[in-house]
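Notes from the pairing session

We agreed to fold both candidates in a single pass and log them together. This is the raw record for the first candidate, unedited. Please don't reformat it; downstream parsing expects exactly this layout.

Candidate A
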Amino acid sequence: MLAVALAGTLAATSALAQSKPVDKASQKFISSAIQGDIAEVDFGKLAQEKGQSDAVKQYGAMLVKDHGDHKTKAEQVASELGVTPPTGSGIGAKATYAKLKILSGASFDRSFAKSMVKDHQEDIKEYRQEATKADAAGLLAKETLPILQKHLQEAQALEKETAQKQSSR
């Protein structure tokens, strides 16, 4: 009899946990994070294809790997939060991609580096805000911040390097 009562209590607790309202902001964040990962992978592939300097190509390879890995984790969190993962990047990223795609050589490298600095600064701001939450999206954001900060530092170094190449002409 105790086992039946205990099983009933566990089932009720489980149902209660599942019916706990999901934070809409967390759902929006995880959806946006996945869109960002898709965009970063696209930017990374473009950098590998069009980059003039090895540094830009290496940075692109890092984006493809890190954001590809992150997208897999983010999709798992989306599933936990009841969010259907987006399958493409956002409008702003598509516009940036279109601008970068028409450039080549040193102008591509400069614009790419500048875009990556701006993009990662915005990402870090959003991830810091989400990292204050204790849900799955917040934990993912907290875990991801060091990677985004590394990307930002490397993008800033790339921006400096590509600006110096411009001024040394």
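Candidate B (folded immediately after A)
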Amino acid sequence: NIVYINLKALDKITAKTSSIKLEIGEKQYFGSLEIKGLKCQLSEDGDLRDTVAYLQVKDLASKDNNQVYLFNGWTFASSPTLQSIDHPIYDLWITGCENI
């Protein structure tokens, strides 16, 4: 049973959005970003259900930082701005998971 993380990616310069279907453990690329999804699960807190995903994102265009992660952590479908990717050109957020 393959688990997928569904992402939306935005290029702020062209205002173009793309949908990305990322298999757990797989790497995909959006512009200069390398995106890897490690986990996706449902989180329940009382009456609140949310989808959470663990993502690692690198900016391959950035040569000065020795490939440090731009983002490395959990992100929530219900409040993507809490843990948004801080990048001048690209934005990413999860929309959900499949097969969890």
